[in-house]
Amino acid sequence: MRRSRKLINRLFVDPTNNIFIQLLRYGFVGGVAFLADYGALYLLTDAIGLHHLLSAAIAFIIGLTVNYLLSVSWVFRGNRKSNNALKEFIVFAIIGVIGLGLNELIIWAGTDLIGLHYMLSKLISTAIVFFWNFFARRMTLFTKTN
């Protein structure tokens, strides 16, 4: 029991710089952010009637905000390079804007060029942008050099 509690704390509670634990946590964070993003995309497109590319941009920003808040409070807690939250968020957002560009490009190519349903294009985009965001953010914002 004690050993499993220690493992649970190591994986989900304690601050860490271990890339595998951070990637695991980022997967959970990405899942929550994805649900916010994907749900907003569906609601904005199908319920409100916005064009799928405009909906995708708005939904992506919602997911980005959820991702930032959970990343700084859980995934990379204790590993921040900067104490300047504004600067950190700006860099986080710039990486996110690049991710948004990738997201839009992949959804456009998948839906408008290849003919996939926009929700399937979004799934493909999510997988690619997930790894871009994790590694870019980890390298620029959240890995202290000792």
How would you sum up this structure in a few lines?
With 146 residues, this protein is mainly alpha-helical. The protein is built from 5 helices and no strands.
What does this 3D model show about the protein?
The structure is a single chain. This protein has 146 residues and is mainly alpha-helical. The protein contains five helices and no strands. It has helices at residues 2-12, 19-47, 52-75, 85-114, 118-142. The relative contact order is 0.14.
Backbone shape: globular
Distance between the termini: 34 Å
Mean of the pLDDT scores?
88
Order of helices and strands: HHHHH
Report low-confidence residues grouped into runs of 5 or more: none
Q: What is the strand content?
A: under 5%
Number of helical stretches of at least 4 residues: 5
Could you describe the largest sheet, including whether it forms a barrel?
none
Strand tally: 0
Work out the helicity level.
over 70%
Rg over CA atoms: 17 Å
Structural class: mainly alpha
